[in-house]
Amino acid sequence: MSYQWNWGVFLQPSASGDDTYLGWLFTGLKWTVTLSLSAWVIALIVGSIFGVLRTVPNRWLSGFATCYVEAFRNVPLLVQLFSWYFVLPELLPAALGTAFKQSNPLWQQFFAAMLCLGLFTSARVAEQVRSGINSLPRGQRAAGLAMGFTLPQTYRYVLLPMSYRIILPPLTSEFLNIFKNSAVATTIGLIELSRQAQQLVDYTAQPYEAFIAVTVMYLLINVTVMFLMRRLENKVRIPGFIGGK
Amino acid sequence: MYDFDWTSIPGAIPLLAKGMLITLEVTITAIVVGIVWGTLLAIARLGHNVVLAKLAAGYVNLFRSVPLVMVILWFYLIVPQGLKAIFGDDIGDIRLTSALVAFALFEAAYYSEIIRAGIQSVSKGQVSAGLALGFTPAQTMRLVVLPQAFRNMTPLLLTQAIILFQDTSLVYVIGLSDFFGTAYKVGDRDGRLVELLLFAGVIYFVICFSASLLVKRLQARFAK
């Protein structure tokens, strides 16, 4: 093999001239993290709402929430992303669609990817929230209502705090998934980590270094998230349960 | 309001069907290789050989921490470079091959975790019983533990297969014309991207939703 290893390539000025290739990687990392975190906020809020709706004693509401979850679970992420990016602007009222198409391409890509990842993950979060609530003893709901809480108050003060703590481990894997899934945004051109890996291969002809560096960055993201979530898990353990102290 | 025009779809059906064949080829290869290789990895992780267990764990953790898109790109952009260095420049169009390898090796990591949980769900008494009957440990695994483990985890394996079927659309990043890639190309060619994307979405939904209903039924039968 006559491959010329050159780790110094990262310090060379990049093709655009105003940055190094290492700088490109950090730009990619920045977009990956920003995209994942903002999508996670959407996923958590929307997912919790639909997860709760699936457990309420109203057939219409829970049926609606079931449809939502099934729709987002059974269409590939890539198709969803392309739908937000290419289809939605066409179907919006003309003025809004044109405004979207004329805005900064980077923000178009980011906005579509954030919406897509957020809602895709929200369906999965909804399933976790539902199973968390359903895993609680039925007496908890009854007790809440018997204390004179309204149904929303029962959810707010009794059911949700318990179930979030129970579902924290599976939520951690969803949180990790969102970082991994954010790589799909490369297909619409967002300059996140995977895109930067491809660009580095194109510009530097040092594919091994580029891919090793980006792979290591994904591994570091994983390790960091796991570390933080384990600390959070320890903090919110419920005494008296198997996982508790 | 957008003017829908669905007329480019009927003519594209043969192309789309061809794409679906590629999608299925990747899916089925990845399921078969993934389950076989995943079983070996799971056994290695649970076995007494510390080195093998560590290696298997490292493999699984590596593939599970990296996005599928990156893995597809590895096997398309990186591995061929190595192969070229060994076999010379003539390796032809490797898109399908690299996708098959990438999916098989990637899915093995996910299947291995499901299978490991399945094996661990079989009670210890079964192993002792197998050994007491005079089976070797390998025979006990093959004839006693694995059949029960696979029975317990069939629904999970099928659910993973549905996710895998959806994920194969990511071969888009290396330009392979699977079902989704074909739909995109046709839409782009005819200026009917909106219709083709919606059509692809509906087809995926119908297939995956029906499959997941079947899995749910199966699960209910197993639970009895």
From TrEMBL, chain A:
Alphabetized SUPFAM superfamilies for the sequence: MetI-like (SSF161098)
Keyword Transmembrane helix in annotation: yes
Broad class of where this protein is predominantly found: membrane
InterPro entries, A to Z: AA_ABC_transptr_permease_3TM, ArtM/GltK/GlnP/TcyL/YhdX-like, MetI-like, MetI-like_sf
Lipid bilayer topology: Multi-pass membrane protein
Domain ABC transmembrane type-1: 29-229
Keyword Membrane belongs to the record: yes
Residues spanning the signal sequence: none
GO cellular component: ATP-binding cassette (ABC) transporter complex
Superkingdom of source: Bacteria
Record's keyword terms, sorted: Cell membrane, Membrane, Transmembrane, Transmembrane helix, Transport
Membrane-crossing segments per the record: 31-53, 65-86, 106-125, 145-167, 210-229
CDD domains: TM_PBP2
Subcellular location: Cell inner membrane; Cell membrane
GO BP field: amino acid transport
Family from the record: Belongs to the binding-protein-dependent transport system permease family. HisMQ subfamily.
NCBIfam families in the record: HEQRo_perm_3TM
Name of protein: Amino acid ABC transporter permease
Organism: Azospira restricta
Highest classification ranks of the organism: Bacteria, Pseudomonadati, Pseudomonadota, Betaproteobacteria, Rhodocyclales
Automatic annotation (TrEMBL), chain B:
Any GO CC annotation of this UniProt entry: ATP-binding cassette (ABC) transporter complex
Residue spans crossing the bilayer: 20-44, 56-79, 94-111, 156-176, 196-215
UniProt subunit comment: The complex is composed of two ATP-binding proteins (GltL), two transmembrane proteins (GltJ and GltK) and a solute-binding protein (GltI).
One of the GO BP terms on file: amino acid transport
UniProt keyword list: Amino-acid transport, Cell membrane, Membrane, Transmembrane, Transmembrane helix, Transport
Function noted in UniProt: Part of the ABC transporter complex GltIJKL involved in glutamate and aspartate uptake. Probably responsible for the translocation of the substrate across the membrane.
UniProt GO MF annotations: transmembrane transporter activity
Species: Azospira restricta
This protein's name: Glutamate/aspartate import permease protein GltK
Transmembrane found in the keyword field: yes
Topology relative to the membrane: Multi-pass membrane protein
Coiled-coil residue spans: none
Locations listed in the record: Cell inner membrane; Cell membrane
NCBIfam families xref list: HEQRo_perm_3TM (TIGR01726), PRK15107.1 (NF011687)
Keyword Transcription annotated: no
Domain of life: Bacteria
Domain ABC transmembrane type-1 positions: 20-215
Sequence similarity: Belongs to the binding-protein-dependent transport system permease family. HisMQ subfamily.
